[in-house]
Structures are given as C-alpha cells and as structure tokens.
Amino acid sequence: MRTAQTRIKLVASVGGSNATLGGGISLLAVKLPLHVEVASAEAKLTDISCPTGHPDSLKVTIAARPGLASLHLGASGADNSPSAFADFSNPQSFQNAEIAQVSVKLLFLTLNLIGVNGSAAVEIANNDPTILIFNSTDIASKTIKNASTKNLTQSLTTSLVNNLSLLVSALGLGLDVTALLGTVKPAVVALLNGVTAPVDELVYNVLGALGVRVGEADVRVMGATCGRSVLVQ
User: What's residue 51's pLDDT?
Assistant: First the structure.
C-alpha cells in the first residue's frame, strides 16, 4: 500500500536580466518547475505465520517506510491530468522540462532559440523500512503502530538544484551547442540558488496552512486468519 498527504506543484520564474555570460551568450530567463510530495508512506506485507495452527499464535509482519518529502524538478506526466495528480496510490513520473532560455550572438546575428532542459530529484525518507509486528491481540483490537522518519537533511530545494542535470539544444536549428553547457549551467544554478530560500519558505508556509503532518506513518492490520493445514482429495 502507498499513500501521501499532499502534492504541490509550482513554477518559480526568475528573470535573467539578459545577463552576459561571455562569448556572446546571454541568459534570458530561468524557471524552477517544482513538484513536491509530502508525507508519503509505504507498507508491505513481508510475513504471516501461525506456528501452532491456533489463532492466538498468529503473527503478521509489515515493513513500513515513511517519508518526509520528495521533490522533483522537471515536467510531470500528471501535469495535464488532474485525476492522475490526485491519485496518491501511484507515484508520479517525471521527465526533462525547460529550465532556461539562452541567446547566442554570432557575428551580427542573435539567436534566441537556445533551450536548456533539465531535471533533478531528491527524497527525504528512511533508507530502510521499519519492521512492525502485529500479534493476534493487536489484530483483534486493530492496534495502530507507528513508524517515523529518521533520515533528515538540509534545505530540500538547495539539494535539488545542486543535483540538477541540464541539456542544451538548438531547438531545431541543427547546430551542435553542447559546448555551451559548461558556460550556461553555472549561471543557471547560481540564479536558481538565489531563489531556493524563498521557495523553501513558500512550501513550508503552504504545508503549515494545510495542517500537513510529516514524518510518521500509522499502520494497522485489519484482519488475518489461520488454521491447521489439511490434505483434501
């Protein structure tokens, strides 16, 4: 089973102010297409046993893995599908999105058709699942057991930007502009790093307004049965 408390998608746009990067290259604008999934959790049935064959020896083992948040920078397959975006039982899929627009001046010609696409992902979740064991009494009383997130890290958005993978394309011009990446990427990352703090604060405030509780998963076993094995013809 899988679930999450909330999903957020937002796009932060940063003007490049036509910043000149040298070699006739100018950074026009940068976008931060951010997707946030908060308080996700997974629970997997790993074992069920009944050693004596009597119901009071019943034991069910669940591997629970709660998470604080996962962030993706890129385009989601659910961007144009509200139903898929609202389906918390399935993870979202992501691909590269346009991150920046760049112009290149060649002699007397200026090309504003250079696209910078990229994606990145970071997750705060337990590295290993928490093992929860439910005996027959726990199951009968529908006891809730808890697993909490222990693996924390620093600023999510900053970590995301630092893991950014970029590609430069000439948008149908048939030109090899791969060499531009070494010049463009540091400028894009520097510009995005300038907005990570306000974006972090924005995400935090939105979650606080929604009353979202993160870092814990409540698990219970609704029912199980056991009995002696019999041979039938």
Answer: 86
Report the helix count and the strand count for the chain, using DSSP H and E: 5, 13
In the predicted model, is pLDDT for residue 151 greater than 60? Answer: no
Long-range Cβ contact pairs of 172-179 (< 8 A, separation 24 or more)? 172/113, 173/111, 173/113, 177/104, 177/114
Using a 10 angstrom Cβ sphere, with 0-12 exposed, 13-18 middle and 19 or more buried, the burial of residue 1 is: exposed
First to last CA, the chain: 36
How many other CB atoms are there within 10 angstroms of residue 151's CB atom?
12
- Residue 183 has phi, psi (to 5 degrees) of -90, -40
Model-level pTM?
0.61
Token couple for 201: 């604060």
Tokens of 102: 């760049």
Q: What angle do CA 26, 165, 167 make, to 5 degrees?
A: 50
